[in-house]
Amino acid sequence: MLRFLLKKPHLTAGASVAIISAIAAGDSASSSGPSDNTRARLSISLPLRNLWEDIRVASSFPLSGEGSGFPSQHQFVGGTVPSTGNDEGDCKCGKGCLGRNSIANAAAAVAPAVVNISISKGGVERTIGSGTIIDPDGTILTCAHVVATFHKGNASSRGYVTVMLQDGRSFKGHVVNADDYSDVAIVKIKSSTPLPSARFGNSAKLRPGDWVVALGCPLSLQNTITAGIVSCVDRKSSDLGFRGVGKEYIQTDCAINQGNSGGPLVNLDGEIVGMNVMKVVAADGLSFAVPIDMVVKIMEHFRRRGRVMRPWLGLKMLDLNPMIISQLKERDRKFPDVDKGVLVPMVVPGSPGDLAGFRANDIVISFDGKPVKSIKEIVNIMGDKVGVPFRVVVVRRGNKYVNLTVVSEEAQV
Questions:
Q1: For residue range 351-362, what is the model confidence (pLDDT) as tens digits?
Q2: What domains are defined for the chain?
Q3: Distance in angstroms between the alpha carbons of the first and the last residue of the chain
């Protein structure tokens, strides 16, 4: 059985990261696709260094093509669940300020659009996760790890899941798109009447300390709401010990559990700013969500191509900061005189980067004509451009500046 739970053998050894979908028994929780033999080793760094484990992961799923009924991006801007007004006792100090009813109002604005996703096992419905209706036509946002097996057309489920709304209505949901790398998936239901839907916010506007609300169906307990604050707006996957996975999460102290996966993280304006995906098992107040800005980009890929295209250069990269630069200069007196940039510690043999002439320990200071100081900036510049040449300026030992041109390939994830 494929388990989305990394458990540590002894609770006193540290903490472990868990993806928080409820694991259904039997075939529904196993990986039966062509990528069964793909393995990902998680190298857990402090404070999780001693708690690594091999897990099986699926590669990209065969996603449905354009015309699958997925709405265009502009349709996600507005929802049909209205924000509640300022009642007596609400905050009067301005937008986003915490008042007596702020959390309740934020939850009320989104709760009707939050759904429970389940499957039938032996005649009993078992919750596997949560989701959010994001348009009146029945498009539901959830986690790929919640519905991945059913997107492949599992024989017992025939590619369908059961979706239950807050008002008790139940629908058959079809898994339309799924991208396991970003952990974003889309489920579609059909209704004869418009459905309640939630509005998207802007995760880039979040600040550490902002209040947020998590909604979902943990342990099959529908309509569960918890609140907390944003602990970090850009927690890197490498901080959690995920080797070779360059992603960022919103870290919060909201209480979430198995079954919360795919549920919304909401700001005080009742807007979705993230999608809850995982927590640290043996610690309190360490929960993580995919930023909604990234989710919107993934959905745009779904709309245009039915799948996500990611460029690949074959370069292992590291953001430089003053402390790292100081340490590297102590080791090598000829280390380049830079105060920022992206270090390339390793080049994959035969990769686009190798063919372009990159060398280990090159420092990227310009990418496609733009100065860069982080991997995130390089990723944003590349976007979904595959087969496109990029002009790169690197600095080498002894302050040697070199111009390179690298042509990206599509990543196999």
A1: 999 999 999 999
A2: 1-86+96-308 (2.40.10.120), 311-410 (2.30.42.10)
A3: 21
Residue 34: asked if its preceding bond is cis (omega within 30°), the reply is: no
Q: What are phi and psi of 260, to 5 degrees?
A: -75, -20
Taking the model in full, what pTM does it have?
0.72
**Quick check: helix, strand or coil at residue 388?**
coil
Q: Check residue 209 and give its pLDDT.
A: 96
C-alpha–C-alpha distance, residues 277 and 295, integer Å: 12
Report the catalytic residues. Answer: 145, 183, 261
Task: State the DSSP string of 9-63.
Answer: SSGGG---EEE-S---SGGGGS--STTTT-EEE--PPTTSTT---EEE-------
Query: Hey, what are 241's tokens?
Result: 């010990």
Select from 227, 226, 247 the least CA-distant residue to 237.
Answer: 247
Q: Are residues 182 and 298 in contact, defined by beta-carbon separation less than 8 angstroms?
A: yes
CA pair distance 208, 29, nearest whole angstrom: 35
Q: Identify whether the C-beta of residue 263 lies closer than 8 Å to the C-beta of residue 216.
A: yes
Cα 321–Cα 322–Cα 328 angle in degrees, nearest 5: 90
Angle CA 139–302–245, to nearest 5: 110
Q: Do the beta carbons of residue 127 and residue 22 sit within 8 Å?
A: yes
CB 263 within 8 A of CB 215: yes
Residue 252's SS3 state is strand
What distance in Å separates the CA atoms of residue 223 and residue 165, rounded to the nearest whole number? Answer: 10
Q: Is 200 helix (H, G, I), strand (E, B) or coil?
A: strand
pLDDT digits (tens, 9 = 90+) for 202-222: 999 999 999 999 999 998 888
Token pair, residue 69, equals 């009924």
C-alpha 311/C-alpha 334 separation (Å) is 32
